[in-house]
Structure formats: C-alpha cells, structure tokens
Specification:
The chain has helices at 77-86, 93-133, 136-153, 162-174, 210-216, 219-234, 237-256, 260-271, 277-293, 299-310, 317-321, 325-334; strands spanning 4-9, 17-24, 27-32, 43-47, 52-53, 62-65, 71-74, 155-157, 186-192, 198-200, 205-209. By secondary structure, it is α+β, with helices and mostly antiparallel strands. It folds into 3 domains: 4-90, Pleckstrin-homology domain (PH domain)/Phosphotyrosine-binding domain (PTB) (PH-domain like); 92-133; 135-334, no CATH class. It binds zinc ion.
Length: 342
C-alpha cells in the first residue's frame, strides 16, 4: 500500500506530528510515526470525500484539511499524487470547483478575446470575402430594395432638368477610372428630405441629391464626390458593411431570438451609414487618383469636404457617414495616392 509521510496539526495547538497517510477504500488513515515522547500517537481516519485538499500549486505543500480544522501538510507532491491516483481519488469537490471556476473564467476570457478578434479582424475579412463572392444579381436586388425604401421615405423626384442631369452623367462617364474592372454604376438624381447627400448602393446606383450639387456649386467638386462614391463601390464597402451588421444582427437574433432586429437594422444602417476610417481612406484615394488622372485638381474634392464640414450638424447625413471631413480635406491637399488592385 502506498504511504505518504505528512505533518499533522490538530488545528488547536501548533504541535507538529509526523504521520503516515494511507488511503484504503475511500478512507484516509493517518498514524503517527512513533516519536520519543510517551504520549499516545495520533491515529485517525476520515472519508476522503470529507477532506478538503488544497489546490495543486508548484511550490506550496499540499494541505489536507479535516472537517474539524485539523490538517496535514505534505511536501512530497509526487508521492501524494501517486497515492491519489492509485486510490482512484479525484480532486475533492472544492478543488474541482476552484479549478473549474478558474477554468470557467479562463474560458470566458478567451471567448471574449476570440469574439473581439473576430469582430475587429475576422468579421471584416469574412465580410470582404463574402462581398466579393456575392453574385452581382444579389447586390442588384439588395440595392433596388434600398432605393425603393429611400424613395418612399427620404427622396423625391429630382428638380434638376433632364439636360443638367445628362450633362453631369456624361461628364462623369467620360472620366477614366483609376483602376481596371471599374464597377458598373448609374447615377440616380434625387431631391432629398435628408439634406445634401451622395452614396452608392450595392446595386451600383450612385445616388446624388440636388442639395449636394447645389451646395458644391462646382461640377469638379461633384465629380470628386462621385469618384469617392465610385471608390466605395469598387471596394464593395456598403455590401461588406451590410454583411457585417447583418452578421452582428444575426448573432443578436440567435442569442435573443428576435428576428425583427435584423429587419429593423437595415434602414438605420442606410440613414446612419458610417464607414470605417479605412474604407473612407480607400474611397478618398480612389477619388484623388481618378481626379488626378482626368486632369482635375484634387483640391476640388478637398473643398467639397470643407464645405460639407461647415454645415450645421444634422443638416446632412453625408457628414455623419463621412467623419473627420476637415482632416481628410487637409490630407487631400497634400497626399497623392498610388492605388493597387487587390
Ligand atoms: Zn465615403
């Protein structure tokens, strides 16, 4: 039978007893190793389920506590572990709880860490991948749905004359895009109830409002804004954005079982569209390169953003979707991007 030597303290006095610990059929026995004094040696038994065994740590001795507060200290960890193993003893409930409590915390923390990593890195990458893999017909359908929604809630027929619309359209169409595989697009002119605005829908519709054309009062600036939107389209930013927020909404739905969250999400997304800084920089760079290539000074785009920046907050939702306009205008005046397809 395996025996382990241990120090026994009765929990009342500081007196040390050298004992031998053995375990048989789930009962722990300790017997004092005969000393020199004449007192009767300690001898007691206790079911191991009633013992509290301290957690395994690398350096501290294992402590085994009896229900009455007496305890054992064992320095020989290896021998003790072997003893536990041969008796088929599992760590006591408290130890298991302690260990699983730590385990649970660790699991929780790593889950949170994984979610954070997925949210900031995995989700954008996955959305990007999905956005590029989606069939064009799907984007078309999605965009058409959005335009119908916007026409119902935010837009009216443009007040611009057909000639004016055609002139802007032809001018933009004549501009060569900076990269190959430029996306299919069509300009859609609308009068807006939500102020000066322009944005590209996944279908390739680039919505441009009468109000933003009027505010710009400079067709080169309008070309810059259209080029910026074409840049968003080229990178499929809105499609990615929708996939991302649908993914989040889908998770919310899974967790809370509320399908309406997904549906409710779409108009909010459209009216309060916020691209990431990276997406904006990509679209800016695309626009700057396009203007540059077509002999239009990128300053026109900088002026466009400065004009938008001067609007009172809430006047244009283009502002909320394009934060840091001032900083970006500054960058536009100095920075000349070199684009690459990827
Ligand atoms: Zn943008």
């Amino acid at each position: 039978m395996n025996a382990v030597s241990a120090k026994y303290f009765d929990g009342k006095s500081s007196r040390l007893h050298q004992v031998r610990l053995t375990v048989l059929d789930g009962i722990a026995h300790i017997d004092e190793i005969a000393g020199f004094d004449s007192e009767p040696g300690i001898s007691r038994s206790c079911a191991i389920t009633q013992l509290r065994v301290s957690e395994r740590t690398r350096h501290a001795p294992r402590k085994i506590t009896f229900p009455d507060g007496a305890f054992l200290e064992i320095n020989d960890q290896d021998a003790f572990n072997t003893l536990l193993k041969t008796t088929g003893y599992q760590d006591s409930l408290v130890v298991r709880l302690q260990q699983s409590w730590r385990g649970a915390l660790l699991a929780l923390l790593s889950t949170v860490a994984i979610l954070i990593v997925l949210y900031f890195y995995g989700l954008p990458v996955a959305s990007r991948y999905i956005a590029y893999a989606l069939p064009v017909s799907f984007e078309r359908k999605m965009g058409d749905g959005m335009l119908a929604y916007l026409d119902k809630h935010a837009f009216e027929k443009s007040a611009l004359s057909d000639e004016r619309q055609h002139a802007l359209q032809e001018r933009f169409q004549a501009m060569r895009p900076p990269l190959d595989h430029s996306p299919d697009y069509q300009l859609v002119f609308r009068k807006s109830k939500i102020g000066p605005n322009a944005f590209a829908l996944p279908s390739g519709d680039i919505i441009v409002t009468d109000e933003i054309i009027k505010l710009m009062n400079d067709d080169n600036a309008v070309m810059g804004i259209l080029a910026h939107e074409l840049g968003h389209l080229h990178r499929r930013h809105l499609t990615q954005r929708i996939i991302q927020s649908s993914a989040i909404a889908a998770v919310v739905t899974l967790v809370f079982g509320d399908v309406s969250a997904v549906i409710a999400n779409i108009p909010t997304l459209l009216l309060d569209l916020k691209y990431s800084r990276d997406a904006e920089t990509e679209a800016d760079d695309y626009a700057l390169a396009m203007l540059d290539q077509n002999g239009i000074s990128p300053d026109h785009l900088a002026i466009a953003f400065e004009k938008l920046d001067k609007l009172a907050p809430g006047v244009s939702s283009y502002l909320s979707s394009h934060p840091d306009s001032k900083d970006r205008a500054k960058r536009m005046r100095t920075f000349r991007p070199s684009l690459s397809e990827d």
